[in-house]
Design goal:
The structure holds 2 protein chains of 2 kinds.
Chain A: E1 5-13, E2 16-22, E3 27-32, H1 38-59, H2 66-81, E4 98-105, E5 112-117, E6 125-128, E7 139-141, H3 153-159, H4 166-175, H5 184-199, E8 202-205, E9 211-215, E10 219-222, H6 228-241, E11 250-254, H7 262-277, E12 281-286, H8 289-299, E13 309-316, E14 321-326, H9 336-350
Chain B: E1 2-6, E2 9-13, E3 17-21, H1 26-33, E4 44-48, E5 60-62, H2 79-90, E6 98-100, E7 111-114, H3 115-121
Parallel strand pairs in B: 5-6
Antiparallel strand pairs in B: 1-2, 2-7, 3-4
Classes of the chains: A alpha/beta, B alpha+beta.
Amino acid sequence: MKTTLKRLHITNMTVLSEADLQLSPQLNVIAGENGAGKSHVLKLAYSIIAAGAETGAKLAPEPPTKSALSRAVAEKLIGVFGPDTLGRLATRRRGRERCEVEAAFHDSRLDISFDFASNSKSEVNISKVPKASVPKSPVFLPTRELLSIYPGFVSVYDSHYLEFEETWRDACRLLGAPLARGPREARVRKLLPPLEESMGGSIVLEKSGRFYLKIPGQGSMEMPLVAEGLRKLGMIARLIATGALLEQGYLFWDEPETNLNPRLIKEVARTILNVCNSGIQVFVATHSLFLMREIDILLHSSDEGPTKARFFGLHPADLGYRVEQGDDVDSIGRLDALEEELSQSDRYLKAGGAA
Amino acid sequence: MTAIREGELAFSFSADWRAGKYDEWAFYRNQLGKRLQGTKGADIVAVARAALRRSRLRVVLHIEQPRISSKLFARPFDPANVRQKMRQLLKAIDPHPCVVDMQRMSGLAWRVTPEERREAAL
């Protein structure tokens, strides 16, 4: 059975009073203005899956226990969201003070439900205990690239109190994993070349613990000297090469467009679709009309067979934000990026730009 | 054939179309004209006779924009933006609306000519 997330039901979490997301096993795109909770949706889904995978890895082959999960989920939420206390993630409104989350997977043995109150400190109440563990660690790519800060980051993070989101640590840990070998290499060889062409070289991890961009005929360039946009492509290339983004698995990518020029955004869109088609469930939060259009163009012209996509729009409501969802970008209500472009055209004409 | 002059442009529609200036319609003047003073809207509305009594309609927006020479705005309104907005608004009527202009008519049947050029030809 597929381990992909099928449905995520959220009640009273941060700015979302109620959201019932029907997800695609392949591509999920979340759009909304700043502060609408896009990243929160990504981080919540990531925390649930990551807590499940971490607990599963410790207890394997036994299924996760209720008490282990109630701590693991709470710790992951605190590490990923960074609130003062867990309860800060629960919204106080409508007389209800509990945040409730239900996650359903295509393999229903993984289903999990939990809740916590606005005064909860370090544990959630697990109301539905999964009967099996998530087999693979999910990948969360933050808006910033991590290759340049990678050296020593995981060990420093684990031994000191650092104000960085735990997603950075988790992603760095995966970046440091060894390269995929065996039959998976063939798949890697198919996905990597377009990315390496855009970067002008390949990403290598030297024994010193630093990443380099190895440029054919020119030698290696230290990561901090490589353009920031290319470092972002480098992250995804490395995760494909290690097998973290091959077959089964999850990719959460928060605003992939950050720091990228349009040519690289085009490359990112193609990579996202390629990763989807190689069996990864992808969640993307974005503002970028350009990225959404690239994805839309690829969805309508993919030669790898149709990719199943779901789109989610977060819109201001009486209480916080609400979700509109559908199978295409036109079914999710107003797109702020589009409205702003149209209104800019109006202002440009009024300012006499076309005179 | 119906010929309509709008500003510096001359539109001509063949006999199987009904076309008119929208702001001359009684409906527009009675219902919208007073309330929407100062706003901009459709200049011409044209309906193919063949479209009447059909259950499915195709919607086309013909938009001629001021010519500008700005690297920032190739055209003041990006037709892709306009088309996407129309897709949101008209999804139930026509999920694939068209946006055209003189240079890109997509094989549509009416003709538009800049008025100056036509006068020069006469």
